[in-house]
Amino acid sequence: MVIYAVIWHIKEMTNTSFEHRSERRSRLLGLLRSEEHWKSADLREQLGISQRTLMREIAQLRLAGYPIDSDRGRGGGIRLNGRWGIERLQLNHQEVVELILSLAIMESLQSPLFTNNLKAIKQKLFQAFPEKQRNAVSTIRKRIMVGDNAGTTAVARYLKPTSKVSESVAEAFLQCKCLEIDYVAESGERTTRVIEAQYILLFWPIWYIIAWDHLRKSSRVFRIDRIQRAHVVENRFKLRHKDTFFDVCMPFYQSI
Asked: CA angle, 226 as apex, 220 and 227 as ends, to 5°?
């Protein structure tokens, strides 16, 4: 029992020490970012540490890739070159998807300026997030498709959907909830139906929902700007096999 108690005590001390060092290192980075130049004495006073500890922390930050410069001589000036870097981003699944989607849209526009590395950036961004989040985002990415730009005739008739409709569609899509819509077809026919937003598709700037339609009991495509009203139904749906929608839209796009 005594041995186990000693081991537990050592473990607790180690964990506490690690947490303390992590917090101190984070504070040191914050201080370096806040000013263009620091005297080592001022940093020591702010952190309540010795010169030896300060130099050790700076050495560890350099090993981690932070470009910290220091000047020799009295006062020991220290600075983070260019206030480099940003804090770790804390993004939820929807924010990650929106960020990756924005890059995918830029990539699809095939602009000759600043787009050569978008695919690599998109992959690096995706890999930067924790595995659990990557798995959740990966499932959503496979359901978002980007095609070519919409034709001039379609764009001429396009009306930007209301924010309420857009928000309801996004919620239903991301949370796999059924969506009740009032829809106006190209023919002018008006119907109310419940749909499952299985996929969404962008032919810039027009968004489409590739859905399972409870009214027709088959797959259908709906232009979001033709939805007059959208209401999220609490009933959740399961993702259907992609072959269900192959004839409707699969030849036209690839996932982000």
From this structure: 80
| Beta bridge partner(s), residue 184 | 190
In the DSSP assignment, the letter for residue 220 is E
The H-or-E segment that residue 203 falls in is strand 190-203
Beta-bridge partner residues of 145: 201, 255
- Give, rounded to a whole angstrom, the gap between the first and last alpha carbons of the chain: 57
Q: Are strands 144-146 and 177-184 parallel, antiparallel or unpaired?
A: unpaired
How do residues 107-161 score in pLDDT, each as one tens digit? 777 767 667 777 777 777 776 666 777 788 888 888 888 888 888 998 888 989 9
pTM above 0.85, yes or no: no
14-57: per-residue pLDDT in tens?
444 556 777 888 888 888 877 777 888 888 888 888 988 888 88
> Cβ atoms within 10 A of the Cβ of 208, count?
23
Contact status, residue 210 vs residue 251, Cβ threshold 8 Å:
no
Query: Within 10 A of 68 (CB to CB), how many other CB atoms are there?
Result: 17
